[in-house]
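Workshop exercise sheet. Pairs work together: one partner reads the sequence aloud, the other fills in the structure field after running the prediction. Swap roles for the next sheet.
Pair: D.N. / O.F.
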Amino acid sequence: MIRYLTSGESHGPSLTAIVEGVPAGLEISEEFIAKQLARRQKGYGRGGRMAWEKDKATISSGVRHGLTMGSPIALSLPNRAFKKDKANWPVVMSKDPVEEKIERITLARPGHADLVGTQKFRFDDIRPVIERSSARETAARVAATALSRRLLEHFGIYVGGHVIQLGSVGFKNWDEVRAHTDSIITQKNALEISEIADKSEVRCLNADLTEQMVEEIKQVRKDGYSLGGHYEIIVSGVPAGLGSYVHWDKKLDGKIAQAVMGTQAMKGVEIGYGFEAGRQTGNLVHDEITYNSENDKFDRATNRAGGIEGGMSTGQPIIIRGCMKPIPTMLKALGTVDLDSKKPTETRYERSDVCALPRAVVVVENVIADVIANAFLEKFGGDSIAEIEERYEAAQ
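Structure field:
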């Protein structure tokens, strides 16, 4: 099974990731990882840091001659902010004690990890919480999970994501979204959804909605606030039977939900019809089963379940939707309390995005890819790609 850990702070020297469990013989390159990192940095509404912090992950172990060796893979992403601002960050984030007086941050932001994190670890300064809880960490996570994404693509499984709602602007309903995605998946695969969405400034498949979303961001920026929204991730080419119904922690949808909710700023997740299913009668929710005598395969007339039944993949595209809250850091201050004086005051401004939703789609694509890859390995796994190919082909 693939497992990864990330380490590093937002303005520290670098981010690091260790990935173990990737089978031997998988073709991988720094360029493939760089493509995912570049996608993560695009999107209208981003903050100033994205304009000059071009992420590049260096592979320092676990890969030889372009192929994984089955051993742990080490990835390093240097933070240009640390090197660029030599007068500040190397001192503020120094691993050694410093003589300089460092400004303490004592104003916690509502909606952020600031206050609870400071209480949990008994800090007298919010900076350590800000540095590690920052969405900057997702750069290391995207680099690490790009390996899982590459494994899936080797076996014809693709992940694609797009924005379906940004603030008050978005698709009206499930059927309207399906009209924009189903034909794409039928013609090719979910990867094409991402390729089309990447051409939009806000990763929306509809040109008219893209313009409206951009205008929404412009207005909210003027108001000094922030925006969140909803997105959809689709996984195509998934074989039936990934996951299991026999234990709660083996259910594929449960693992997907954890991956989504474990991503910064996420507040909700649903599979297929999701919450809409609770407002409908059963005949309008469940997918009737069909049989194709030509290929001797069972199928379903619809895919309202989102490709998962009983915690297992059905063989249809897996459809996941998530909700991202607005960024807690805003130009217009909110009320807080100073940790030292205990007096009410206003939050301080930290540089941030107005809307990080388009970037978050890429992060969630990749963490979901990791879940699917592990479910795939659990069913067809081996120590090498060649061994997995043999088992996968034998099961077809």
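Discussion prompt: The chain has one domain: 3-272+307-395. What would you look at next?
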